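Sharing a chain and its predicted structure for anyone who wants a worked example. Both blocks are below, sequence first, tokens second.
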Amino acid sequence: MSEPAALLPLILISTVVVAAYLFYRLRRRLLQQQKNLEDLLLQKQRTENMLSRRLSEMSVIHEVSRALGSSLDLEKTLDMIVDVALRVMEAEYGSLYMIDNTRKVLIPRRVEPVCCPDDTVELPLGDSITGWVAMTGEAQNVADIHKDWRFRDPLGRGNLLRTQLSVPLWSKGSVIGVLNVFNKKSGSVFDTDDMQFMNLLAASAARAIENARLYTELKNQAIIDHLTGLYNFSYFQKRFEEEVRRAFRYSRALALIMFDLDDFKAYNDRFGHLLGNDALFIVGRIIKDSIRDVDMAARFGGEEYVLLMPETGVEAVLSANRIRERVSKAHEQATNKIWLAERLTISGGVAIFPQGGSTSAELLGNADKALYCAKSTGKNKIINFDGGMSKTDAGYETYKAESGNSSGSTEKTP
């Protein structure tokens, strides 16, 4: 066999090996390119999903910002914030706490859904995950709250909670509250995208809350007496007329009580006007804390107060006496570091629609006459006007006095 013929098998084998190697290299490159393409497609899909989510979130934030910006009602604003957080985060539970800087506590303003009889449990700053966020100003995403040392269950629903995402509400460089969501409905944990959205929502929410607060504050300045925290008399007069018309239309009882601090001028002269102002505030607070939500208390002028009690008859005398007793004991305890320098007492006159007057002017005038009678017959008592005037304090003999003989001036300085 010639030499070239002998080399032919080797040449064929070499050719096959080289071809196989080149095919392997080509196949490997094609597979790598296919993988790269799949990765690119996957990355593209992820990017599209992320952009779609971002656009959706920005759209929601835009809508929420517009909605929140259009609402100056604080309570409606708080409702909207928690509702949006629950809906967008697809969470089972949500809550919003506001900071009381005076007492350094967190007050639950919204808890959804309502899960226990008492949703008003306050949290000290730093206590629980929510308190920690309020104290540090740092958002927290806790995958398993039961393994977190900060977890506390003030509302008694710990067995229902698994995960928690909490973000601070910042305004003017300080934390004013905390927004929480719990448990994704899908069963998964909250991720970094959820955290980012919640921070955006918190920023819009904080601005809306501050706007609503400012509106409420400005509105209150027009109707609230700054010294006592009660309504001013001009606003009271408007509501008073409305309640009288309602009582007349529906034949309902309506009680008006007028209070006056006894010997307050002497108190002012002895302790000064600053302590005198504290006394006016304390008495105003006692009255406010002693009445129902439907009742309305106002500062009438000087050291005088008025209290309107819809659908209330002679039981208003008992309410007035409870207030009188609390005022007489107020010097025994301090209120928010404010105290009375010595014991003060209060007298009151009661007029009840329609026996004590069928118009606002008659009710006010007769309550004033009853008050004058209380002041002129010993003070620290409540007198009810009933056509004449009857002293109603227990331990005193009931007597009658003609209304014309008990003429007190009805001209008061608001």
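Comments welcome. Confidence is low (pLDDT under 50) at residues 388-414.
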